Amino acid sequence: MYSTLKELHRSIRDQQHLNLSLRIHRALSWLNRAEQCDDADGRFIFLWIAFNAAYATEIVDTQRGTSERAIFGDFFKKLCDLDEDKRLSTLVWSEFPKSIRVLLDNPYVNADFWEFQRGNIDRDTWQKRAAGTKRAANASLAAQNTPDTLAIIFSRIYVLRNQLVHGGATWDSAMNREQIRDCVAFLEKFVVEMLQIMMESKPTLWGDACFPPVRDA
Question: What's the pTM value of the predicted model, to 2 decimals?
Fold first, then answer.
């Protein structure tokens, strides 16, 4: 899909805002690398970077406390509002409903589970939080609320991202194959749909891209 998306970007980038064009250019470069990768762990990391390149904005000091979940939520709401062809709804509700439920039930991609394992919260608190997040997830799933469901999915993928990027997992480990496999399959489709929506939608403010190119230092 990289080649198809790259051709689309070349054909429209002169009409795009510079910030959007930079986001797309960066994200496509990482999607290209992911498609060349022959192991699931590397593919996951490169796909995450592609996603991050497209959605992330500079966060000023007063926003440091903003949760990743809240940032995800704002981005997914905007993305779904622009998704006139309902690509993301189809992805969530038609292509991946079973694997999404499996992912949401997996404790190893739940941040609160690891808080319990570290001793920062007790078992009762962990179980109550797990029950609460499951109710919230089930409510979003039942209502087919695509932005909220995507935010929940990515909060779980983010935990897996932390495990790999911060060295909290062994390469090609048998212990996390299920969640790696499911997340890679989802991200491969999601990143493509996300980039198409961002390129084909009406002009939209996405904010300043992180670390813009600086010619003279």
Answer: 0.90
